[in-house]
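Reminder: ligand-aware prediction takes two inputs, not one.
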Amino acid sequence: MKSHQSNIKKAKKYLNNNCCIGVPTETVYGLAANAYVDSAVKKIFKLKKRPKNNPLIVHYLSIDSLKKDCLINDKFMKLYKKFSPGPITYILKLKKNSKISKKVTNNHKNLAVRFPKHAIFKNLLKQLDYPLAAPSANIATKLSTVRAADVKEEFGNKIKYILDGGKCSIGIESTIISLVGKPTILRLGGLDVSEIQKTLGSKINVDINSKNKTAPGQSRLHYSPGIPLKMNVIKPENEEAFILIKKRKTKLKNYFYLSTKNNLNEAAKNLYSCLRKIKKKGYKSIAVEKIPDKGLGKAINDRLIRASKY
Ligand code: TXA
Ligand code: MG
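Here is what comes back for the chain with threonylcarbamoyladenylate:
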């Protein structure tokens, strides 16, 4: 814990100087900077090669700090009490006097906000008097990162510091719900939509392939391992990497397991690191066996479908 404290202190120093750093969250690593400062936020877009019109998620420690920037409503309170901190992002209306940099939302009036659960990230936020804008810490459209070493691989020396918090426990990005107007799921993720539905008590819209200009990140090629990927494969070609979620009796070197016992939470946790490993080993294509479309399997399939659009 002592070394964490000194690392958090270092991270704080960089952030106070408007630098952009890698941070651990329970979902994936983030590329964080002061959400109140234009020049800091600009660095995120540049490093990620992210189009300016693709808005960022802002991370808060508490509802008190959020209230300075956003208007909250009853549905938000219900979900917040049940699921935050955790893998859910809310789209809320910005307050007129909010200090959030206009670059975060590309001048739009709605903001994506999240309360991360990772102890080290929370500890860092506790020591700052501003929230952190942080998209996933990967080059735009490429694979997300779940370890400090992955972040280093993506950005090399272009980022000054990565706060190491170990491997992300969930491994897949947060579920995004818009609470401006009728509740609508904009991205499947680490929190199962049926849980959200149960809590709100009514059926919610799911609009994950929207051409809606405020969430362009969902309408494009995304999560790409950089090589072709096929889903629902029963038997792979000899030379391709084969991803499975249940152990098989084989010594074949091209078999990679997301889980040994068909556990979808474990599979989500291992998804990005497995794809990254296969890419590094020099395989030219990837085949994936059918993943059950339930629980976190839905979010895994969502990412695989987008990755297969390479
Ligand atoms: O788990 C996560 O959510 C991670 C960690 C680091 O917190 N962050 C993350 O951020 O996945 P990013 O930027 O890679 O994905 C955010 C998505 C993008 O598709 C973006 O278009 C959408 O959220 N988004 C951001 N602000 C929005 C807004 N105001 N309205 C609608 N969609 C928004
Ligand atoms: Mg991302």
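Residues 229-307 form a domain with the Rossmann fold fold (CATH 3.40.50.11030). DSSP finds ten helices and 14 strands in the chain. We will return to this case in the review session.
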